[in-house]
């Protein structure tokens, strides 16, 4: 199969726009719709016509352009069954799967950031669109879910193959990196990643995408079971979900 093409570009102050394009059929999906103009500009630059929006959750900075893009292109909007999404055509829930350009897209329910947040996984392409559940070196804030729910959601993503390429919703990586080293100061892989992120950002480059393997090695929010982090937090006997909750609470205060 001809590989799908991906276009990544900035939207709003720190959101990512992502377009997923099949060169054979012309099908083009926008992962969320944070802002109309940059999405239309990216489509025009590539000569692509939007056919789908895959919505991950209801926050305005992920759905603001849904109706405008639907008006303009007549797109099909596929989004979370448990949330209210502008212009939604097809509601999907965890465990569902649908077709995009002849490829299965699996829906993973990841409550925590919002109550009905979903991620889109293309197993054949080894691609995950994690939006505001998993960031490079971070995870979404818990607006509607409990730490235990978010931990369970992150465990589902961590169980995907390590080579899975992960696109995420926001360029928060530099501040995430500065926090990560405070809870995992002796992690050599993290230290070298922080240096790499500092030089990427200094050059104005994106830190997306990442991979599941890289996040498991360096993202403290996936490393609640790690003995060194537990020792550092003096939480050797706590459950993984409790360690995760402590890391999330520290990040909220950071
Ligand atoms: Zn959000």
UniProtKB/TrEMBL annotation:
One Pfam family here: Lactamase_B
Residues annotated to bind Zn(2+) 1: 57, 59, 113, 132
InterPro entries: Clx_II_MBL, Glyoxalase_II_hydrolase, HAGH_C, Hydroxyacylglutathione_Hdrlase, Metallo-B-lactamas, RibonucZ/Hydroxyglut_hydro
Any single GO BP term: methylglyoxal catabolic process to D-lactate via S-lactoyl-glutathione
CDD domains membership: hydroxyacylglutathione_hydrolase_MBL-fold
Cofactor note: Binds 2 Zn(2+) ions per subunit.
Binding-site residues for Zn(2+) 2, renumbered to this chain: 61-62, 132, 170
Listed pathway(s): Secondary metabolite metabolism; methylglyoxal degradation; (R)-lactate from methylglyoxal: step 2/2
Protein EC: 3.1.2.6
Catalytic activity: an S-(2-hydroxyacyl)glutathione + H2O = a 2-hydroxy carboxylate + glutathione + H(+)
Keyword Secreted among UniProt keywords: no
Entry keyword set: Hydrolase, Metal-binding, Zinc
Domain Metallo-beta-lactamase: 14-170
Top-level EC class: hydrolase
Function statement: Thiolesterase that catalyzes the hydrolysis of S-D-lactoyl-glutathione to form glutathione and D-lactic acid.
Family to which this protein belongs: Belongs to the metallo-beta-lactamase superfamily. Glyoxalase II family.
Quaternary structure and partners: Monomer.
Stated name of the protein: Hydroxyacylglutathione hydrolase
Organism the protein comes from: Shinella granuli
Gene: gloB
């Amino acid at each position: 199969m001809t590989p799908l093409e991906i276009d990544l570009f900035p939207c709003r102050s720190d959101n990512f726009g992502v377009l997923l394009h099949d060169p054979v059929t012309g099908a083009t999906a926008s992962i969320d719709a944070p802002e109309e103009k940059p999405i239309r500009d990216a489509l025009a630059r590539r000569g692509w016509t939007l056919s789908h929006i895959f919505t991950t959750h209801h926050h305005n900075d992920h759905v603001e352009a849904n109706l405008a893009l639907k008006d303009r292109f007549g797109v099909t909007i596929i989004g979370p069954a448990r949330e209210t999404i502008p212009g939604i055509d097809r509601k999907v829930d965890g465990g569902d799967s649908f077709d995009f350009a002849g490829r299965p897209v699996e829906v993973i329910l990841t409550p925590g950031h919002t109550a009905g947040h979903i991620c889109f996984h293309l197993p054949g392409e080894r691609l995950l669109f994690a939006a505001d559940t998993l960031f490079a070196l971070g995870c979404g804030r818990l607006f509607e879910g409990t730490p235990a729910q978010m931990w369970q959601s992150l465990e589902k993503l961590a169980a995907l193959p390590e080579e899975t390429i992960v696109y995420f919703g926001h360029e928060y990586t530099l501040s995430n990196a500065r926090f990560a080293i405070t809870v995992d100061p002796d992690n050599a892989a993290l230290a070298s990643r922080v240096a790499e992120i500092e030089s990427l950002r200094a050059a104005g480059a994106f830190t997306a995408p990442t991979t599941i393997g890289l996040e498991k090695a360096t993202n403290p929010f996936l490393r609640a079971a790690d003995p060194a982090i537990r020792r550092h937090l003096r939480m050797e006997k706590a459950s993984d979900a409790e360690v995760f909750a402590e890391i999330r609470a520290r990040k909220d205060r950071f």
